[in-house]
Amino acid sequence: MRFSLIALSALLLASGIAAGKTPPTKLQIGVKARNPDPNCAKAKDGDRLWLHYTGTLWTTGAVFDSSAGRGDLFNFKLGHGEVIKGWDQGLRGMCVGEKRKLTIPANLAYGNRVMGSIPANSILNFEVELVKMVDSKDDKDEL
Fold it and tell me: pTM for the complete prediction?
């Protein structure tokens, strides 16, 4: 009986329930550092963004990917479906130098698909820092 309680406690802790966390069903955006310029250019659909990120599983906190460890900036065109929907939505309005924490529900991430070490139906956390941005009208990488 004691072993069953220990196993159940470990399972609940891993799922975040024991910590009082309710699984989010909507995108959550936390600003960890702001650009001090109130007139900074804000990321919009079509802009090319370069950023550092670290992705973790919401349930366990396990890191599944990080650009910082590779030393390379990740870049993509915002709003063009090149990344998960949670990024396209959660990075809009971001300024260079800003840091955000995104908590992305499964339906805005990979849904019921397994992606490498990310289980199906996973809620994901991302710590993101926008390092560079090129306005959509100046981006010469159009196809």
Answer: 0.81
